[in-house]
Fold each of these.
Amino acid sequence: MTGDHSFRGVLVDDLRVQFGTVEAVAGVDLRVDQGQAMALLGRNGAGKSTTMRVLAGVVPPSGGYAVVGGHDVREESLDAKRVVGYCPDVGGLVPRATPWEHLQLNARLRGLVDWEARGRALLERFDLGDVAHRVTAGFSHGMSRRLSVVLAALHEPAVLLLDEPFDGVDPVGVEATFEVIQDARAGGAAVIVSTHLRDLAVEVCSEVAVLRGGTRMATISSGFMAGDEGARAYRALLAG
Amino acid sequence: MAALTVLAALAPAWIHLDRDLAPLLPAGLAALVVVGVGGAVAGAGGRELLARDPASIHPISPMTDHLGALLLAPLNTGWLIQTWALLGLSASIAGPGRLLAAQAVTLAWILAATTLGQAVAWAVECVRRGPRGLAIVRGVVGGLVALLALAGALPEGRRLLVGGPAGAVADVVASPRGLPVALALVLLVGAAVGWTVIGGRFAQLASRRMPRDEGRLETRTHEARPDPRSDLAVLRRIDRASVWRSVPLRRGTWLLAIAPGAVALAGGLDWSGLVLLPGLVASGCVLLFGVNLWCLDGRGMLWRETLPVAPRTVLLARACVLGEVLLGAGLVTVVLGAVRAGVPSFAELAGVVLALLVVVGQAVSAGLRWSAARPHAVDLRSARATPAPPLVMVGYSLRLAMATTFTSLLLGALAAGGRTDLLLAATAAFLLVSGLRVARAVRRWEDPVRRAVVVAVVAA
């Protein structure tokens, strides 16, 4: 498949990632249009985080094709990184830098101007305003998760990738993350949320893709994955 | 290492030297105590068997931690080199006939000095973690360093430093006879047992107190500064913060900047000796974080790798920060050492300055290579943390020490011979090699697969 560079969402075709003899991603296909949000669900080791890392430009694909915001992640790596906002699944923060310094680094490297007001507003929304100038090494897990979402959202990216954004986060943080996702969709961004929390995923996303063993098992409308019926359907997909 | 230790302890006994080395022995014995105490105090209780966070879920008692630190104490180049030199000196002085007795006493001294260092380190850590502990420790350590420098500068002070227990043990090693040897062994081994028990007690006390220095840095507020003017500047700023806000890195850098300079000041080292110090400082400082440069980002490396910036800019920023730390520490050492070194000739001054530049280049290029080739997931929050496992650190430090010492000796010899032309040529050659190695490291860092491996390890 050749890339459709006019497409500004996320397009993944037969994506493969090999770590030594282990194939972490074995032919994933995804399509997320602008203004849409897709949840990635699946068991541990299903390939969700690896897929997200490929889209974020951290892990080069071993095969297949991935386009974000009209840029091939392999061929136009820097351009792809410019249009992506990524919240990693673990950590994601420089331990001895402050949140404000993270924002400064992000803003400078992305060429943002007059970003300070939005930065402050995001920190306040995620209840991090009081610790904006404290080093992140002393942050709790939930605080780190919230700040990672702030960093992913600062530049209003065309593609927002949130990997486990709700993990260990309090209700205020979950609500703020919902708002960020809704704002991004309203602004025309393509959003992918990888999580184990199905209830939250179906609440904020329009579609759900279930991965198993490094491949996509199904893509289903969120409505079908909600409630007890959805839970049964999800378990059936995981069991194969 | 075991083979080298045996070699150092035996071979010199059969080498005949015209020079009488016995007068050097008391200073060698005293120096081992200084190295043992200084290293353990700077390391906030010595090396960890397990890193702090992974260890916290295991039932490891403070006494086990203390004994583990004692066990790992030899995995330190400063300690190793000092010990090898001391064993070699003892063997040379004692000769083949009395080698066994002499080396038994020397080994007992090494044991006692190491356990003393560990006990003092835990005692200092207890105070440091107490009320106003930081200020007290800084005041006392600063005062002691000044006192040592002063004592070393005066003949009476020098006699005092190398007299006492070091002098008495040196006498026994120089002429080991039955009763004095037995007495020395009983006293030194007894002292080692005593220091071990006392150290364990202090370790228990320290474990009940919060590490204030680390807590202070982690809760400190840093006011926002204006936006940097370039990508390189913003990267350098955040990398600098990662170094100077880390307790082990800050403490280690200051120790390595000041301690060799203070020793040079005390010993009245001349310019031909000063030329060796930048290599010592650079190879020590690069071991603080330079051999695993990417660990400064910790798990944040995963996010940093998604930022739209050329990989070479990221690498150059890191190299600049490493270079400035090494240069700064080396300069402090040289300035301290220069106070009593007299007025240098142009060649001597050039020798020291160029040696500093060359060894910094060597250390930076080695750090860049090793950081990409063998990354480790390390959290540099604990004052006892090191950027790589202890055995790996020994390998790195020996390789660096050999390279920088050889380079410094060569440049020093050219400077002493007044051959400024050859000095400049050798400097240019060394810098060219380092430059080529840095360029190769930059090219390798531009490979996304290689970077992904480093990110996966460091952010694990």
Amino acid sequence: MIEYALLFAALCYGVALLLDLWRIAQGPSSADRILALDTMVINVIALLVLYGIWRGTAVYFEAAMLIAMVGFVSTVAYCRFLLRGDIIE
Amino acid sequence: MSQTAELLISLALVMSGLFGFVGSYGLVKLRTTMQRLHAPTKATTLGVGGVLIASMIYFYAKTGHISIHELLISLFLFLTAPITANFIAKAYMARNLRGEDLPPSGGAYGWSIYDDAPDGAPTAPPETSKAP
């Protein structure tokens, strides 16, 4: 039962990643693209945790944690660049 | 692994998958950027939260230890999601809205997106906006 639920969740997140990609390509403003990129990071975190459950190891939590941190910093850096034209003033 | 644990894990996984999909579908479907800011909140809170709950139950049922890695990830996401949303909204406003279109800030100076806050005491009403 868990295998099917895992497959279903991974499928949902895969389609969600594709939709984010469409928004990145389409997005009228750069804020849309940053938002879609942030959503992609969150979906990839979920996919990594799903992969960890599927393999039955806890190794991937560290990777998910790292991606969460780096994703947050990159989103803030993009927004900062749009706001001020500079990242570290 | 007991039947109850399997049922709980599957339920959390299916729910989180649906919410993650709804978050990204809203990102595509909603009309304006400010509306689109709502959608990824669902993906963060319920989607990733559900996956992490499923993973906690799975590893507890498998090894008997409660792991707190998942709680760390969801705590971090809960902390950072409002900050990113605020930053994206500010970036959108600086790019696409003019300071004159907004209601007055009610303070001695304008909104912080368009005008720098004064160093010391409140100064006179600010000059023109300097959005790039």
